[in-house]
Amino acid sequence: MARPRFSLKLRLAPLWPVLSAGLVAALLIAVLLPRLLAEYTAERLLTAARTLQKEVASRLNETGQRPLHRWVHEISAESELRITVVRPDGQVIADSARSGSQLEAMDNHAQRPEIQQAAEEGWGWSLRDSSTTLRRYVYVALAVPAKGDQQAFILRVAEPLAELSGARNRLFGILAFAAFAALGVTAGHSWWVDRRLFRPLAELIAGARELADGRYDHRLAAPRAQELAQLSRSLNRLAQSVEEQIDAVADERDHLQAILSSTSEGVMVIDGRGKTALVNPAFRDIFGIEQEATGRYPLEVVRNPEIEGTLNEALERGKAGIRQIEIPPPRPRTVTLAADALDTESGGAVLTARDTTEYTRLTIMRREFVANVSHELKTPLAAIRGYAETLRDGALEEAATAERFVVRILEQCHRLQALLDDLLVLSRLESVEAPFEKRTFEVGHLVDRATEVLRGAADARRVTLHIEPCDAGAARALLRGDEVSLERMLVNLLDNAIKYNHQGGSVHLSYGIDDGAIVFTVQDTGLGIPEESQPRIFERFYRVDKGRSRDAGGTGLGLAIVKHVVQGHDGQIEVDSSVGEGTRFRVTIPRNLDTEDPKADSGAALDGDTA
Ligand code: ADP
């Protein structure tokens, strides 16, 4: 984590007050010090002048001017002061900085500020460059009272300023030391502030930046400073709350995603701009979409104007639009579309697509089935009604006719009975709840019972029935299945083989074990089935020759029942036929002995299977 760097200006901020205070102090000292020192020196010089005042006065009276000049030289040598004595008219009469001969050449001092002031007020002082010595001096002048009403002489004492700058330099030295010491202390303080404030602050900022970048699982360390620790705790709480909210939103999104992914209904969501926001796997599957769909217009995703139309209807009219569309080959489908506008701020719509191909097929099938059944019922009912009306209208009187008609009525009743029986069987086989009661039994028994049922019919049509187990053990071979349904299957196949046969023809039923399955073959020498009809004979009510089928008492449902039974036993059926030569049905039923249900029956114990 990169810590942010604070600017030098900010980091040095605590130093500024100290630095400026130091600067102001130094400036004040630089400006005021010379003046203060000059005043102090002036006072000192005044004291010295007062000490010398009497001596000068008495010497002026007693010894005259020349000895005075020598005397000032002596005094000055002891004290290093410059001592000057000026006559009331401004003429210098003694000066420690000049020799006797130079004295004559000195200019009049009456206009010197300190001398003027002393002449007026008794004493005066000034700080200036000496025009005589060209050095900077502090001058103090003191009037020396003269005898009688004579004007006063002026005694002047001066000290060069060089002395002053020395003192000043010492003071500046002390000041500089103090400033460095202050700087040191401030730097230490600054380092402490940096450690306690800037560094933890930088860490907090870096942490906050992590959070801002979306890493909500990041947590900030608590700095030592209490206020910063509070800030860090608040940020952590904020991060946790955001993390929880994001988790909740993510959970909800995953939940929705899971629902959308697992639903068999296709879903397409359109955003407020009319572009695709989402399509689920089912939608992709129904319309065969492979490319990315998000952010594109629906028509770009699915090249079907109906989709656009349904969506527009929902968006413009604000009501749910429903329509059924046909998707052309290679994957022809019937799809029901429903679109509804989304009741959100940004708008948009949701389009659902349901693959109703199977539903439509079943609906058509059911409609056709009802039509077929009605049609099948209509013919015998019309016949019965016809015979009954004829009887009522007088045929009852003629005994022979009446008997013939009653026989016909009975025949039609049998036909109706057969039709209803077949419909009931078919309905049971097609029911969702297990239509088969599977048990283990001997194949030989099944074949015996089926042939028994048809023996009479075969004799009536003079058709010979040959039953041939493929080998000695076949009859005792065990098979697990619904015995009643399987018997019905054999009866239907044999019945057809007899019905659609020639007088004097024959039917061969052979059966045996082949690769874990029982194979039944029903071969006849009958009419045969045209090739184009062969794929359709298993359809309900499909007949090759309607008249012949009805005459023979067929319902058109026999082979549909056979197909259901075979499929219900995971078997297979094949047909091989040529017109005029005969037909062969081959049925393979897996024996399924290993799926034995122990409480089913005791058939397995009889296992004499030698196959
Ligand atoms: P049906 O009750 O009419 O016999 P099925 O479903 O049993 O109905 O048979 C459908 C049609 O298949 C029959 O109408 C008949 O035309 C034809 N068919 C079935 N079995 C044979 C067969 N062994 N020989 C010739 N045609 C047959």
Give a short synopsis of this structure.
The protein is of the alpha+beta class and 611 residues long. It is 51% helix and 18% strand. Helix 6 packs parallel to helix 7.
Can you walk me through this structure?
The chain has 611 residues and is α+β, with helices and mostly antiparallel strands. Helix content is 51%, strand content 18%. It contains 16 helices and 17 strands. Strands 2-1-5-4-3 form a five-stranded antiparallel beta sheet. The C terminus is likely disordered. Adenosine-5'-diphosphate binds next to helix 14 and helix 16.
Write the layout of secondary structure elements.
Blueprint: H1 8-11, H2 15-62, H3 65-79, E1 82-86, E2 92-95, H4 100-105, H5 113-121, E3 123-129, E4 136-144, E5 153-160, H6 162-212, H7 226-262, E6 266-270, E7 276-279, H8 281-287, H9 298-301, H10 305-317, E8 321-327, E9 333-341, E10 349-355, H11 357-392, H12 399-430, E11 439-442, H13 443-460, E12 464-469, E13 478-481, H14 483-499, E14 506-514, E15 517-524, H15 546-551, H16 558-568, E16 572-578, E17 582-590
Parallel strand pairs: 12-14
Antiparallel strand pairs: 1-2, 1-5, 3-4, 4-5, 6-7, 6-10, 8-9, 9-10, 11-13, 14-15, 15-17, 16-17
Helix pairs in contact: 2-6, 6-7, 11-12, 12-16, 13-14, 14-16
The chain binds adenosine-5'-diphosphate.
Residues 492, 496-497, 500, 524, 526-529, 537, 542-545, 549, 554-560, 583 line the site of adenosine-5'-diphosphate (ADP).
What form results from the Cα inertia axes?
rod-shaped
- Main-sheet strand order equals 2-1-5-4-3
Bound molecules: adenosine-5'-diphosphate
Characterize the largest beta sheet: strand count, sense, and whether it forms a barrel: 5 strands, antiparallel
Helix percent band: 40-55%
Mean pLDDT: 87
Number of strands: 17
Q: List unreliable stretches of 5+ residues.
A: 598-611
Distance between the termini: 80 Å
Q: What structural category do the secondary elements indicate?
A: alpha+beta
Percent of sequence in beta strands:
15-25%
Number of helices: 16
How large is the radius of gyration? 67 Å
